[in-house]
Amino acid sequence: MALQYGPTRGLPRLCEFIAQLSSERGVACTAHDVLTTTGSQQALDLIAHTLLDPGDVVLVELPTYIGARRRSSRAARSSRVSRRMTTAS
């Protein structure tokens, strides 16, 4: 058995399973629409680089996941921390 990285988009059978499960839950998609990642850091990096432009400001609450703040800061070049705690009434 060779230890190698899998396909970049994820294992085809896993993508098909996720697409089928999503469709059953009301999200119309195909396996081609699914992208799996190797962990949260990779997912956050892809999201930040896809949705943020240089100069965008990202607001995060405290406490927050520090990895999310780092990733958004790299993509947007700026992040702000809000110490205000909001609660639903």
Topology:
Layout: H1 12-24, H2 40-51, E1 58-61, H3 66-76, E2 79-82
Parallel strand pairs: 1-2
What is the makeup of the main sheet? 2 strands, parallel
- Fraction of helical residues: 40-55%
β content, as a range? 5-15%
Number of domains: 1
Using DSSP, what is the number of strands?
2
**Order of strands across the biggest sheet?**
1-2
From N to C, what is the helix and strand string? HHEHE
Alpha-beta content class: mainly alpha
Distance, first to last CA: 56 Å
Walk me through the structure:
With 89 residues, the protein is mainly alpha-helical. The protein has one domain (12-82). It is 40% helix and 9% strand. The chain contains three helices and two strands. α2 packs parallel to α3 (66-76).
In short:
It is built from 3 helices and 2 strands. It has 89 residues and is mainly alpha-helical.
